[in-house]
Amino acid sequence: MIPLALPAQSDGITPYVTRLRRKRTDHPEDSWCLMSTEVKSLWCGAHGLVEIDYSADALEGDVILVNPAAKRIERMLRSGSRHNSLLITERCDQLCLMCSQPPKKSHVDRFDLLHKACLLAEPSATIGISGGEPTLYKARLFEMVEQVLQARPDLSFHILSNGQHFCADDIPRLSDSLWHKVIWGIPIYAATAVLHDRIVGKTDAYERLHESFDYLLLSGARLELRTVLLADNIADLPALAGRISILLSHAEQWSLMGLENIGFARNRWPELYFDLRSGFTQVGEALDIAMLNGLNARLFNVPLCHIPPAYRHHGVASISDWKQRFAPKCTGCAGKSDCSGFFEWHPDELLNQVSPI
Amino acid sequence: MTAPTGRFFSASTDLMTRLTSQALTDTDKQWLEAHGFLAVSPLAKHAQKFMKARRRTQATPLDYLILVPTLRCNLACSYCQVSRADERAVGFDWNAQTLAAVQRLVRTLDGPAAKIEFQGGEPTLRPDLIRAVIEAAPASTSMTYVICTNLQVINEEILEIFDRDDVQISTSLDADLMTHSRQRQSDIAKTKQFLANLDQLLARYGPSKISALPTIDSRSPPDVDDLIEEYKSRGLTSIYLRPVNFQGFARKRHPHAKSQDKSWDDYYERFLFSLIERNWSEQSGAVLEETYFSHLLKRIFRPGQDRHVDLRNPNPIGRDYVVIDHDGRAYPSDEARMLARSGIIDLSIGDVLTGWDTPERYALEQAATSFGDPACDSCAYQPYCGRDIVDDIARYGTVDLPRHETEFCRRHMHLFDFAFRMIYSNDEAIQYSLKRWLGLASDAVSLGMKR
């Protein structure tokens, strides 16, 4: 697993953002490497010195957040990675059964630091925004996205949201062509309000979600729909595929996502997890309905050997580099390079449920 | 019942009566709403509008060029659509000025992807011009080159171009040796050479790089199974069945082609049923398809299938694709170029030196829509159908005809009737092929709703 946070010592006082460079540059936000061993590196910049417990080779080009008091750094935008995601808040107004990052009550506003990090991103990068629920701080979020895109038109954003907070007033703003560089990743878990609301743990969430979908459609917003595969909603997937092809055919992608064994899902694994090897019928039917109607449906976080051959082209090697792992048995599998593999935290006893292709 | 969104269902007579007399029950309304035919919520209303709009072709920036570097050809096929020039003729190739202008044009293809098709004449007579075009393409654009060739002559220089990963080969394979030779007015030895070349390339690249299509003379069409076998035995699974086109030389030699009668429709259906039987009885093998029928099916079920430029509505002219002839003239389609070549009517819209944002382009584009046409506006197939004004002009010398009296309409009416008969067929074998042609992996999903 690639570490995202590292122990570090610095002489700064308040948290700051800087970009790590091997050699000295003219950029005021860069820190350059003074020395490096296999386990430590020392960097110097306008904010002072920072010593990180990691070799410079692996950090070169990263945009990091230095937190002197906590004696650590966060690798906010890792150089060369397609999986960079910035956390806006840990608060959320939904409480999903399988939440991988259970929400917290407290919130620390880091927008100024996030904003600075975005401006230092690599050319043409796509920056993920997640939470908690980022649109709980909609005003600050919109402002940051717009300002960053004005300064850096080469960048794009992918923002995960529960779709509970868009309103009619957002339409003129989100209609601006600036927002063509933003794609919203929004979950929809079922074809009925009762089931969806139960999964997200919020009354009337489904109705509010559809209201948001309407505002986003009227804004010409780009949309990715996300559905986590659960024992609860498997049977509902064909109906959901039908519903999406009628109401949400403008979505650029429908991502069906395997369950992550982390957060709430860890303790609820036996009742939430659906083993696709025991029955692919409903997922297959949903994929076929999507295909028939021209929806781009993809299967995320599911190892290829859990997908019947006729549907494997829907599978995506999706698990982010820093949290991907394979089973010992995967060595030598012909599908490995196209396979999602497993999450780093997938339990050892489940890991070997693979059958090499 | 079809909706402007393209969604459709088969309605019972009772439901039709209630629909037309505005006597829908609450249960009717619930069903119609759940299946996308009645919009109640704001999201449903806007989604329906969006789907309806997606059934109209949206013209994208130029990303598809058909180039004719030379009109010369080393064959003289009986149906040749392009009034080709003799192989030794002079003055039928791009001159230096035209080539420079084509290269300038190619440099502007800076979108994510673009396609350039080399037509002729026989483009492989000028590999130097093909290379000059390829060299001009922006490095950042994902290019596909299609070389439409009779494969009569292959040499090292041509192979070097074919070897490129971004090059596809397209050729004609009319059926068996005799049919192919007859239609090409060519001797058997030449046809044998072509078949040897085709098989050599198939061995070298496999079937995915090569497409072939048969041109069918419906007076004496080849035996359906022989034709399929010619393709299948070579691993070619997509067959684009085309009737002799009423243009170019074909106009002079095949006057009957003006109105293809029922015999073509019958042949086409026999061909489709043969594919269906083969797919059903050999389910482990590769799925065979008729290219145009698969495209029609996709247009029925999915919006945005607008890259087949002869079947879309409205049909943007000289926007996302254009044809540049051997003399630099720009045409809205290859058929339009052929009409000019045959001296029937000049449908050029400009030229590669000065551009084609001209009154001619505008005039053609204004007519290239089925919206507002009384016959089309009342037709159930309008969301799926297209408007091909060049075909109308070729046949009738005018675009101003009652639409249902045109061959384009007659042919497509038959195709869509046929497609919907198949969609609602209970025959397992038919359903099996339809679902494969639509890219579905299993047979669980029902294609046609009924109420």
Summed up:
Chain A has 357 residues and is of the alpha/beta class.
Kindly estimate the percentage of residues of chain B that lie in beta strands according to DSSP.
5-15%
Q: What are the low-pLDDT stretches of chain B, counting only 5+ consecutive residues below 50?
A: none
Class based on secondary structure composition and strand pairing of chain A: alpha/beta
Determine the structural class of chain B based on helices, strands and strand pairing.
alpha/beta
Q: Judging from the principal axes of the Cα atoms, what is the shape of chain B? A: globular
* β-strand number of chain B: 14
- Gross morphology of chain A is globular
Task: Provide structural commentary.
The complex is a heterodimer of chains A (357) and B (451). Chain A is α/β, with parallel strands linked by helices. In chain A, 25% of the residues lie in helices and 22% in strands. Chain A contains 10 helices and 16 strands. Chain A has helices at 56-59, 111-119, 138-151, 170-174, 193-200, 205-218, 237-247, 264-272, 281-292, 348-351, and strands spanning 5-10, 16-21, 30-36, 41-45, 48-52, 63-67, 72-77, 85-87, 126-130, 156-160, 182-187, 222-228, 253-257, 297-300, 324-325, 342-343. In chain A, the strands form 3 sheets. Chain A has a 7-stranded mixed beta barrel. In chain A, strand 4 (41-45) and strand 5 form a beta hairpin. In chain A, helix 7 runs parallel beside helix 9. Chain A is globular. By secondary structure, chain B is of the alpha/beta class. Helices cover 41% and strands 11% of the residues of chain B. Chain B has helices at 13-20, 26-34, 42-54, 96-107, 127-136, 156-162, 177-184, 188-205, 224-232, 248-253, 262-281, 291-301, 334-341, 359-367, 374-377, 389-396, 407-423, 428-437; strands at residues 64-67, 72-73, 85-86, 113-118, 142-148, 167-172, 210-213, 215-216, 238-239, 242-243, 289-290, 321-324, 329-331, 350-351. In chain B, strands 7-6-5-4-1-12-13-14 form an 8-stranded mixed sheet. In chain B, strands 2-3 form a two-stranded parallel ribbon. Chain B has a two-stranded parallel ribbon with strand order 8-10. In chain B, helix 4 packs parallel to helix 5 (127-136) and helix 11 (262-281) crosses helix 18. In chain B, 40% of the residues are buried. The mean pLDDT of chain B is 92. Classes of the chains: A alpha/beta (357), B alpha/beta (451). Chains A and B meet through helix 6, helix 7 and helix 9 of A and helix 3 of B.
